[in-house]
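Sequence design from tokenized structure. All designs in this work follow the same two-part layout: the structure record, then the generated sequence. An example of the structure record is given first.
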């Protein structure tokens, strides 16, 4: 397993649709039992389960695992602190996306108003 300070040395994530728990373990430098535990603690982390309850992670989940790993091992967050940090990041992105959408709608409505005049 990689030392916490070696996050830059993690392997490049290949262009695949699904990854097994063993592949994710190697890509993220985290043992499989830790990944299974994190699934219970972080609700956004929910891999697809297929035959025999085998887990298949998607690329966005691998990226999330790397982010969780960095928060816990490098930045010293607790599990609950990392969970709160991830939720605040998600809510900030949602707010930014909403603001952008509202701005776009205002511009379009002003254009329609000009056409009607």
């Amino acid at each position: 397993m990689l030392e916490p300070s070696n996050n830059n040395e993690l392997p490049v994530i290949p262009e695949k649709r699904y990854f097994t728990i063993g592949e994710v373990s190697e890509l993220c430098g985290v043992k499989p039992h830790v990944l299974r535990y994190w699934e219970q603690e972080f609700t956004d982390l929910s891999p697809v389960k297929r035959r025999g309850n085998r887990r298949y992670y998607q690329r966005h989940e691998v990226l999330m695992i790397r982010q969780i790993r960095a928060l816990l091992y490098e930045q010293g967050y607790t599990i609950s602190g990392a969970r709160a940090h991830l939720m605040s990041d998600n809510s900030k992105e949602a707010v930014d996306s909403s603001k952008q959408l509202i701005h776009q709608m205002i511009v379009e409505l002003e254009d329609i108003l000009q056409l009607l005049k």
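The first helix runs from residue 21 to 28. We note this feature because it recurs in several other targets discussed in the main text.
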